[in-house]
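Fold this sequence, please.
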Amino acid sequence: MTLLALAPGLFAPLQSLLSFLPQIAIAGLALLTAVFRPQVYRWAWSKAKARPGIAVAVAGVTLLSLVGAAFALRRGKPEAPPPPDAKVEGSWTFRGDRMRTGGDGSSVPLDIAVSWQFVEMLDRRPFASSPAVWGQRVYVGCDNDVLYCFHATEPGDPLWTFAARHPVFATPTVTGGRVYIGEGLHHHADARLYCLDAMSGKKIWEFVTTSHVEDAPTVVDGRVYFGAGDDGVYCLSAATGEKIWQARGMHIDTSPLVAGGLVLVGAGYGETGVAAYRASDGTRAWFTPLPASCWGPPSLGPAGAVVGIGNGNFVHTNADPRAEILCLSLEGGGIVWRTPLRDAVLAAAAISGDRVYLGDRSGDFSCFDAKTGRRIWKTGCGSGVVASAALAPNAVVYGCLGGHLHAVAPADGKPIWTWDASRDAWTTANGFTSSPTIADGRIYAGCDNFVFYCLGRKKP
């Protein structure tokens, strides 16, 4: 990882503090005005002129106290009362379903605009987690170690926040009135999987790993399946968090696909490829070695499990890129078809009917035949695509590292609209590592520019 890639993360706290110094100064002046009488000011001024060192020290302590109070208010503020959406049925797994469509089947507006957006007051970091929508609530993680819950349509502060111990890169899974969310990045060795109440954000249980949890857990039949880096794959009780089984031996960072009694995961380190474990007891059913890393979670297609591979990563492309998209049979893991690509695939393919939609790090975004792997159409956006697409009946929506969301026609890839996030220049990084989500005709997406967006129909 280069210093350029690290720069936004290193300077984000300083940038956030500097951007709010005027507000902090005004707040401090207002506080002093409310507390002290005029004669006290005259006395303080005379002392300050006599001993300026003391004045500087007092001003510094006052400033630090105000900054600390702002952080405390942000992290420890009382929870907002739940909105009147009561109990909500249904669930949201990674990208919405096993086909990774990223949407609820609603169409997107053809005239797009920002409905609302959220920027953290002080601790601004990228939103790399992909949002989950459940009823009138939106859940998304952030690199500032926080999981946020927003009202889906009403702008304002989060309904609640949950403070994790490490960055929340993983995507939340919501089912049965609970949120399951992991934490940590590759350098963390003590990350957790949390189970929270979906309405209040209260922790129900947590499970401690000896590695990290970058993937979205999959909840099926009362069990939680998730990868945890060097720990391999875990299966826990969804109700209590007790471990049922653990499959060691592979480094797993992909959200599991549970299908046909199997738990399918991809591996990006060491023994690269796709493995299938029996959901009942965690024994390995088959393993298909592949020539490059598998970072994107498998998707369920009509001919088997579809995965993309490549030798790049989220930070940079490989000098000699090797990449392809493949379909593996659920019975034995044999390769049904494979199609070469120009650069690494880092996200899940989105599948609708007999079509597969996928972007890669070269900037290509393509549509393939789900049964044969034949490329149907291809379009380009000028910068790498490292996130999954979201599918709607009238559009395919995907983001790129250049800071744009694109909507193209599902039939032929012709552009419908492009929306630019670089206008919100909180940082030099404006790319979309977070995958967009479509719900009730709105598009939700986090951005590397520290902003979380809700896009909807432009008002007349």
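The CA atoms of residues 199 and 445 lie 21 Å apart. Residues 3-76 form one domain.
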